[in-house]
Structure formats: structure tokens, C-alpha cells
Amino acid sequence: MDARLERIYENALKRNPTQPEFQQAVREVMETLEPLLLSRRDYQEAEILARIIEPERQLMFRVAWQDDQNRVRVNRGYRIQFNSTLGPYKGGLRFHPSVTLSIIKFLGFEQIFKNALTGQGLGGGKGGSDFDPHGKSDNEVMRFCQAFMMELSSHIGADIDVPAGDIGVGSREIGYLFGQYKRLVNRNEAGVLTGKGIGWGGSLIRTEATGYGLVMFADAILREQNDTMSGKKVIVSGSGNVATYAIEHAQQLGAFPVAISDSSGSVYDPDGIDVALLKQVKEVERGRVSDYAERRPKAEFRPGQKVWDIPADIALPCATQNEIHAGDIREMYAGGVRLIAEGANMPLTPGAIEVAQESGILYAPGKAANAGGVATSALEMQQNAMLQSWSAEKVAGRLHSIMNDIHETCLTTADELGDPGNYLLGANAAGFIRVADAMLEQGIV
Fold first, then answer.
1. Active site includes 126?
2. According to the 3-state scheme, what is the secondary structure of 34-101?
3. Which entry of 90, 105, 114, 126 is annotated as an active-site residue?
């Protein structure tokens, strides 16, 4: 990078040591946007980049709760309120043992630009805990969520910071969090959390939104190439909410998803993924992909293996960060993959992105491709503010329009910057410009 940008990055490293995921996210944006950043004197004079890298507020707190054996457990909670230039902080809560300050900060940093791309007046934030809901009873999850909200409640609000779900935080957890928030503040502030139950302020299509939006974005890319999803063989990593509904919508568009995975391994199902069975195993029984494979006559469970060696046309990584390396990309390309759209946040390592772009694979970064979840969360906030409940058709229509707009914005921005078809550049630049220009207009804050 240019020496001036390198100094900013080095300063960020000093301020954020032992945070590799956050450092990686910052480096990607800086390297991608180097020509833009160096061409804008107003950005340099106002130290826009250095200000965006530094969160507005970082909360870290102890969460003490009691398990079913009456033992006191202690976890660590986080909420990073990264940037409120465009609106209230918005971003999910992740409950998973892998959660660290670095993970939450990288997710919050990505969320700034993702939210900006939706055009819905949302700032960027993220939160979570190293608590693992897997294997816990409903009562244990409830007690943890109540303890977590005891600390978080004074820092959130419909016009301040609006958390949602992420890995490990589904409708059950959102319900417990919302119930405790109501008790603490003594008011029914429906817009303080999104991902709520349909009967008490939630939005139709919110559960499906990230996966559906991912496939909508991939379909827009193919249409730009005069192609369609119909008949395409698809491999998907993960088996949670995003993966499940990406598979469902891909099937609705005529594609043929054949693979899923979790931390134990992967499943290849040559007959195509049975979405109804997958939902039963993962959402109702809270089981593993191996349980799915046992009930499908031709499905093969592959312990410890990824899905990327399975021949396909399209890859949708929907599991977690840095799950795809350069070697995986070469394997995918050899197997026929020509489009990768990220359902997870930062699933490709820097080396993997480089190989994908060099090989000519169409690559859609998560901050654009998986923005459907936060976009529909904003639609839920709108419904709460107006005391309305929209039909599934209306929400799906709005989601489709937003994803198409994001696709067009990425394409147009990349073209204006002299690199047509570069979705990574288009997404990073478009999101950054929207935030940076608003920061200039609001002064030094």
C-alpha cells in the first residue's frame, strides 16, 4: 500500500493487537480502496479512514448466570457500536464459543458498509458472547439471555442501537432477550430488537431473508451474464439458517443444491438436499448433518471434510469466517465453479480472494451478497414504527428490490472506478463513499 495508508494501518495494528480477524477486514478494505482514498484530498484532511477504523464505542462485560445444576457460570459479553453516521447502530448478536473481541470488531466493521449499501439509514454495530447455546436447556439459555440483557439494556434502543440475531441467536434467544428488556425498561419498545416472533412484532420473511437475499444477488449476477440459476448445481457450506434458506430459494429458481456441512463434516446428497428434512433435523431436533445423511438413501456423510471438492457450478459459503483458502478455490475451479457468493461474513481468506479473481470466478463479497438479512431487519423496524404487519409478498418484493439495487450499485461503482465487474471493489467503494461523505457533512465527531 501507499506509505500514507500503511501508516494508518500500522497505527490500527498498534491499537488493536492480537485481533487478526479485525486486522484482516481493515486491510482488505484499505487495499481495495487505495486509489479512491488517495484521490480524495477531503477524505485525507478529515482523517476519514482513521475515524472509520476506530469504533465509536466498545462495550465488554461480564455475564454471570446459573445453570440447571445451580452452578454459577461466567461468560464475556460484547457490543461494538462502530459507526452511527447513517443511523442507529444495527447488527446481530453472535453466541458461540469462538467469539472474541477481534471477531466482533471485524463483524462490526463489515456491518458499516453492508448497512450503507442497503440505503436504509442504518449505522454499523455487532455484539455477542462466547456462550455456547448448543446442548443447553431452554431454561439455561433463558437465564443467560436475561443476564446478558441486564448489561446490554442501557446501551440499546430503537433510535440508538438495534441488535438482531446471528450464529447461535435465533427466535428463541431473541424472545428471551426481548422479554427481559421489556421488564427492565418498563415499556414495549418493539423496534429495539429484530428477528422477533411474528405474533409480537416480527416480520414475515425475516427468517428466510439472508439466504433468500444471497440467492437473489447470485441470480442478479448471472442475469448480468445472460444466464440463470436454472439447472445450476450448487454446493453450500453450513447448515444453519442462512444455508437452509439459500438452498430453499435456489431450488425455487430451478437450481440443484447437493451439499451441506457443519463443524463435524459435510454431506453430499446426489438426489438434491431435502429442505424439509434439513429443517426438521437442524431447527426442530437441533441435530447434526450426519443425522440428515442417515435418513437419505444416497446421501454420504464425510467426516471432517469440506464441500469444496464436490463438482458444481455455484458455491455459496454460509458457515463462518476464513473457511475457504486458496487451495479450496483451485479445487472448486477444477470442479466447475464459476460463481462464489458469500452468505457468511468474510469466508474467503485474502489468498482465496486473490485466486478467485485471478481465475475469473465471479466473486460476490458478503457485505453485498448477504445484506438481505439486515435489509429485512430494517423493514421489520419500519413495520414496528408504523404499528403495521406487512404480507409476505410485500416484504419479499421489497427484499428483491433492495438486493437488485445493491447489485446495480456495486456494478455501477466498479465501472466508475475503472474496474468493470469487480463486485469486491464496487461493494467496498459504494459503502465507504456513502459513510465517508456523510461524515464530512456532519463535521468532526
1. yes
2. HHHHHHCHHHHHCCHHHHHHCCCEEEEEEEEEECCCCCEEEEEEEEEEEECCCCCEEEEEEECCCCCH
3. 126
